[in-house]
Design a protein that fits this description.
Strand order of the largest sheet: 1-9-8-5-4-2-3
Order of helices and strands: HHHEHEHEHEHEEEEEHHHEEEHHEH
Number of helices: 13
Bound molecules: pyridoxal-5'-phosphate
Shape: globular
Strand content: 5-15%
Mean pLDDT: 97
Low-confidence stretches: none
Largest sheet: 7 strands, mixed
Structural class: alpha/beta
Number of strands: 13
């Protein structure tokens, strides 16, 4: 068996090291110009991102959580409204709903780990105003079923696309299905920066204009305050880094898909694990593998063993889906999500992961199951 390795769940330093000089030049240029807040780098990144997704507007914000709050608020969601989201998501999706005064209503997941349209349908009441599909793990939800439900009940769609830049469903990119979508540039996200960052994307001129006001204290272009706003601006330095990385985004996606294909090759015959769908298993989906979330028998045993063998793994949301967060007042019973959280585990997945690393991880998993 190969010599012991140390493979972190995510390699944060590698993010910088692979293009260190280029980034240092960028940073130096911006520092020397004193261009810190809402300078040309933010505008340029917004243009680049909008072009990448084929949307009319991209607005840089402080992080995705803020982006979700601003998007919901700009789309008109308010106190008394119910908004349906999956239980298998980051608490941020729900807290955004809470902070605009609305009620988060949790739906179950399907075998693909994503929001299940049938469960969503069963949660619709006369108070439901919106659905928030979470494009989880770099995969897009079955958006035709969800948009059909939204059309039938006159619901607004606001996507949480934090994990999915570049992913698509039936040729249409995640982030382009609803009234607005929020993206995250947290370092470990598929397009990560060197700190916090986020964006809202939309085709709606009015929503875009409102978000531009909201993110900057309610000030319009002339500097006049026209509504109650927040401070949630994408940092200019991060915007420069993001434009640089966005140029290589499709290359990064291909590398991640390569890692996924290698995992498939090495692990698909192990009956104790269920892998995410393979690259070509479902032609409707183009997945970018933000995460490689498997289901595993004796998950905790496997996780412990991989840890002793130097392999970092993670259970999403610290192992607690939203419907189990009693302190937030949730009481829903969601059998699929419940079952999944006894089995789900994320293996290392990033574009700088080597094929030797994937082989090492796979070999250890094989050994664990004997
Ligand atoms: C990371 C993440 C967020 C929050 O993003 P931030 O930029 O850290 O605010 C929201 N939703 C999902 C699904 C995420 O994975």
């Amino acid at each position: 068996m190969a010599e012991k390795r140390k493979i972190p769940f995510f390699d944060y330093p590698a993010l910088f090291q692979e293009h260190a000089e280029e980034y240092m030049d960028l940073v130096r240029g911006i520092f020397e110009r004193g261009a810190f807040i809402l300078q040309k780098e933010v505008t340029e990144f917004e243009t680049n991102l909008a072009r990448y997704l084929g949307v009319k507007h991209a607005i840089g914000v402080g992080n995705c959580t803020d982006g979700l709050i601003l998007a919901l608020q700009a789309a008109g969601i308010r106190a008394g409204d119910e908004v349906i989201l999956p239980s298998h998501t980051f608490v941020a999706t729900a807290s955004a709903i809470h902070h605009v005064g609305a009620k988060p209503v949790l739906a179950d997941c399907g075998p693909d780990h994503l929001m299940d349209p049938e469960s969503v349908l069963s949660m619709v009441t006369d108070k439901t105003r919106a659905i928030m599909p979470v494009q989880l793990n770099g995969r897009t939800c079955r958006m035709d079923a969800l948009t059909e439900i939204a059309a039938k009940y006159n619901l607004i769609i606001v996507e949480d696309a934090a994990q999915s830049l570049g992913s698509s469903y039936k040729g249409r990119k995640a982030g382009t299905f609803g009234a607005a979508a929020a993206l995250s540039f947290y370092p470990a996200k598929i397009l990560g920066c060197f700190g916090d960052g986020g964006a809202v994307v939309t085709d709606d001129d009015k929503i875009a204009e409102t978000i531009r006001l909201l993110r900057d204290h309610g000030r319009n272009k002339e500097g006049r305050v026209v509504l109650w706003g927040y401070n949630s601006r994408l940092d200019n330095l991060q915007a420069a880094v993001l434009s640089d990385r966005l140029q290589r985004h499709d290359e990064i996606i291909e590398k991640r898909r390569g890692v996924a294909a290698l995992y498939q090759r090495h692990l698909s015959d192990i009956k104790e694990v269920v892998l995410p769908l393979g690259l070509d298993d479902d032609k409707d989906h183009f997945d970018v593998y933000q995460n490689f979330e498997i289901e595993a028998e004796n998950r905790d045993g496997l996780r412990g063993y991989l840890g002793t063998e130097g392999v970092g793994t993670l259970i999403q949301w610290g192992g607690t889906p939203l419907h189990k967060m009693k302190d937030l007042g949730f009481t829903a019973m969601l059998p699929m999500t419940e079952k999944l959280f006894e089995r789900c585990l994320m293996l290392p997945m990033y574009h700088s992961l080597s094929s030797g690393d994937v082989e090492y991880i796979s070999e250890r998993i094989r050994k664990f199951y004997g």
